[in-house]
Amino acid sequence: MNVLIIGLGSIAQKHINALKGIDPDVHFCALRSSTEAKEVDGVRNIYKLSALELSTIDFAIISNPTAYHQQTISTLIPYKIPLFIEKPVFDTLQIGTLLEEIAAQHTLTYVACNLRFLGCIAFVKQYIINKRINEVNSYCGSYLPDWRPGQDFRKIYSANIEMGGGVHIDLIHEMDYIYWLFGKPEEVTSTKANNSSLNISAMDYANYMLKYPEFCANIVLNYYRRDAKRSLEVLLDEGTIYVDLLENKVKYNGEIIYESDKNVLNTYEDQLLFFTEQVINNKVEFNSINEAFEVLKLCIAND
Question: 111: which strand partners?
């Protein structure tokens, strides 16, 4: 397997480790912006695409800052390489005819929202079938300075609006799994702010209300919670489903109905296995760039 990486940061390293678990003989090359870029073990650095025989590349991982995704995808479209795109797909809805160009070239795409592969979320998707839902609450809060120990958090893309950062699209996982579980809402309203003591340019708080025909879903996101929490509540007629995403556990009326020793890190290999086997080999459409763009529209609602 030959894989091109564009954006060799911390998230790319997770994808590299996951692919090594799938195929120990995988070969990586990374398009670097500077000849002074550090070497990564097992990855060949290149500085222009012409240095590659692109017909030998099985797929490309796009994991550079979100603000550069549009340009990167445009550059790769003519080569008809399957694209594994790190979330969020874009930081703007102004993308011209990019989706039409991808469709015209029949380019295979997948946008990496790996929480769809977390056991507790997949369990809930099946558990709620044919059940009456009255209310949904999704919450994700953690402390941005703890995300990458040893780095100045104010310099990472998450903290900088000009790099495509901001809690409203950086933590797009919550909007994505709500969309995956319940479909497209009829209406979205939102409040976003960056008033916390983090003192960053990007939004560090977002609150969404999604209106469905029979219930409403609320999503709260922040960058400043010291005691990390990631949860989902689904209120049914008969009781409440409570999902702890950090523990990969589901309770119904206080009783555990699902739990797993796997965690979010395990989902990286699961989603890449799905991408290589189902999206590339079987042409299964799953969170394609078109679907991810619909989710992005919800995240940037009212901006």
Answer: 85
Assign 3-class secondary structure to 134-197: EEEEEEEEEEHHHCCCCCCHHHCHHHCHHHCCCHHHHCHHHHHHHHHHHCCCCEEEEEEECCCC
Q: What is the pLDDT of residues 228-269, one digit of tens each?
A: 999 999 999 999 999 999 999 999 999 999 999 999 999 999
Element (H, E) at 15: helix 10-22
**Burial zone of 261 (CB within 10 Å; 0-12 exposed, 13-18 middle, 19+ buried):** exposed
Residue 129: count of CB within 10 angstroms of its CB: 6
Using one digit for the tens of pLDDT, what is the confidence trace for 109-135? 999 999 999 999 999 999 999 999 999
Confirm whether 2-114 and 116-260+289-299 share one CATH topology: no
Cα three-residue angle 252-257-261, rounded to 5 degrees: 130
Residue 23 pLDDT exceeds 90: yes
Domain 2-114: top CATH class: alpha beta
* Overall pTM > 0.70: yes
Neighbours of 95 (CB within 10 A): 18
Domain ranges of the chain: 2-114, 116-260+289-299
Share of the chain above pLDDT 90, in %: 90
**In the numeric block, which tokens belong to residue 62?**
């796009």
CATH of domain 116-260+289-299: 3.30.360.10
Contact 217, 136 (CB under 8 A): yes
